[in-house]
Amino acid sequence: MNLKLKKNFFKNKTILVTGGTGSFGYAITKILLKNYDLKKIIIFSRDEFKQSEMKKFFENLFTRDVHKLRFFIGDIRDFDRLSYASREVDYIVHAAAMKQVDTSEYNPMECIKTNILGAENVVRVSIQNKIKNVIALSTDKAVNPINLYGATKLASDKIFISANNIVGGQDTFFSVVRYGNVIGSRGSVEPLFLELSKKNAKFFPITDINMTRFWLELEAGVNFTIDSFIRMKGGEIFIPKIPSVRIVDLAKSINSKMKHKVIGIRPGEKLHELLYNIDDSNLVIEFKDHYVIPPSIIFNKKKKYFTNSAKENGYKGVKNKEFSSNNNKWFLRVKDLKKMYHQN
């Protein structure tokens, strides 16, 4: 995307990141401070220690622009605190969520409060404070979900998309960015494999030798989210065209000599993941580097989703198909993965 367009879009704007002390929060803060002349970046999260560590990190990294960084202790479950933090904010990235599948299964009501009721709070606050653009981060686990985490993220997606139908004439727009596993993020498998390799463990635990996952570098996910702010008209689910990996190939790329032990698929885990399913395919619009699922219910008939706000053109051509990690045309090979992990 045109860099000048991006710089002008974010110039002198304030952006709030919920769950901002996570991997995504670090990455987007770094990219925004380095490349864009924003007014402020507000990190909204509930862990004071993580905020303290993040503040130290960016004070050392961006001495000149660190004054643009603000930290708010708060929980997205707390409407009043979230409302206070988002005053005079232009854009919100909603990254806060309970993400661990097993933790969500064991603590279902906590997952619902954070991922669903928290999403509702973000929508209500955004309308109340007249936020311009809001993007919620989603996951491939929201497509045909089989675990509570995926089900709550599906509900969250629906909340954000439908929010566009209740804003009336107000210029507040909501969209969703959905992608798969982020390399190096908390809870992903490759940090575990890297640690086991470093410790010379006896084996890599492999859930299933046929298992595949979508794979995305963190910086690419952040840049796609930033681009989506410029592209959005409101109501879209943005899906990047990203590669897949076979979990056994990932293990081989990290340590080709280590044995594999099949431990079986865990409860709530899929063999393959989807970014859109066959039932959504009749809606999907394909662009050069991404897909868009426009809303199924559109009250504002003036919105034409075949051209986005960045003047990029898309077309329909994926009917009766699904975007699955096992039927993806783009797979990372062992040698590709070795380059990512700087292996010889």
List key phrases describing it.
344 residues, alpha/beta, Rossmann fold, 3-stranded mixed beta sheet, 11 helices, 16 strands, 36% helix, globular
Describe the structure.
This protein has 344 residues and is α/β, with parallel strands linked by helices. The protein has one domain (3-180, 217-242, 277-323): NAD(P)-binding Rossmann-like Domain (Rossmann fold, 3-Layer(aba) Sandwich), CATH 3.40.50. It is 36% helix and 19% strand. The protein has eleven helices and 16 strands. It has helices spanning 3-10, 23-35, 48-61, 79-85, 101-106, 108-128, 148-162, 189-198, 218-231, 247-254, 334-340; strands at residues 14-18, 40-45, 69-73, 91-94, 133-139, 173-179, 181-182, 203-206, 212-216, 237-240, 244-246, 259-262, 274-276, 285-286, 290-293, 323-324. The strands form four sheets. The chain has a nine-stranded mixed β-sheet, sandwiched between helices. Helix 2 packs across helix 9 (218-231) and helix 10 crosses helix 11 (334-340). The radius of gyration is 20 Å and the shape is globular. The model has no long low-confidence stretch (mean pLDDT 92).
